[in-house]
Amino acid sequence: MAKLHVTTTVNGDAVEFLCDAEQTLLDVLRDELQLTGSKEGCASGDCGACSVMLDGRLVCACLVLGAEAEGKLVETIEGMASGDELHPLQQKFLEHAALQCGVCTPGFLIAAKALLDRDPDPSETEVRYWLAGNLCRCTGYDKIVRAVLDTAAEMRGS
Ligand code: FES
Ligand code: FES
Questions:
Q1: Strand pairing of 57-60 and 4-10?
Q2: Neighbours of 117 (CB within 10 A)
Q3: What are the tens digits of pLDDT across the range 39-82?
Q4: How far apart are the first and last CA of the chain?
Q5: In whole angstroms, what is the distance from residue 37 CA to residue 64 CA?
Q6: Rounded to whole angstroms, how far apart are CA atoms 113 and 85?
Q7: Residue 158 CA to chain centroid, in angstroms?
Q8: Cβ distance 48 to 60 under 8 Å?
Q9: Ligand 2 mean position to 78 CA, how many Å?
Q10: Which of 60, 103, 105, 134 is the best mutation target for the ligand 1 pocket, counting ligand atoms within 8 Å of the beta carbon and taking the most?
Q11: Whole-angstrom Cα distance, residue 117 to residue 39?
């Protein structure tokens, strides 16, 4: 079957790619655009390791078709830092040792940023609910939640 030609924006850059009609956005990011930060944990929308932003909405890239990125804005973990300067969430994850194997980390960071962008002062319960769609097999979640709350406090200047 003929490939689809898709024109989109990824992390602020205009991007074009060819994909199969059934190819997921996650596969396009990883296999066609070599943006391998987004991970595949389950490929069924259950783990959040593939979380990206699509037109400002948090989505599982494994549940979105690559063709659906046409004309949209895609933000991935590769766009989170500013050059050599880590995003405050990335810095706090390091300070709190909020990762072990790291497979879940890009998804947690994207999801946590989406939360703090809409609510700069979430409660611990809100953080835990918001991140309920992101699974981690290593850390036990407490360090992740503390890193997010610490980031929020720092970004508020408190
Ligand atoms: S790989 Fe997409 S939710 Fe698990
Ligand atoms: S750090 Fe290993 S799955 Fe989360």
A1: unpaired
A2: 11
A3: 999 999 999 999 999 999 999 999 999 999 999 999 999 999 99
A4: 56
A5: 17
A6: 16
A7: 26
A8: yes
A9: 18
A10: 60
A11: 22
Structure tokens, 124: 């611990």
C-alpha of residue 45 to centroid of ligand 1, in Å: 4
pTM, rounded to two decimals: 0.97
Those residues with Cβ within 8 angstroms of residue 120's Cβ, 6 or more apart along the chain or in another chain? 152, 155, 156
3-state secondary structure of 9: strand
Q: How is 34-49 classified by DSSP, letter by letter?
A: --TTS--S-SSSSS-T
Q: Which ligand is nearest to the CA of 143?
A: 2
Q: Which atom of ligand 2 is nearest to the CA of 102?
A: 1
Weakly modelled stretches of the chain, pLDDT under 70:
158
Among 28, 24, 26, 7, residue whose Cα is nearest residue 71: 7
Amino acid at 66: G
Phi and psi torsions of 97, nearest 5°: 50, 45
Token pair, residue 109, equals 């960071």
Contact 144 CB / ligand 2 (< 6 Å): no
Residue 101 CB–ligand 2 contact under 6 Å: yes
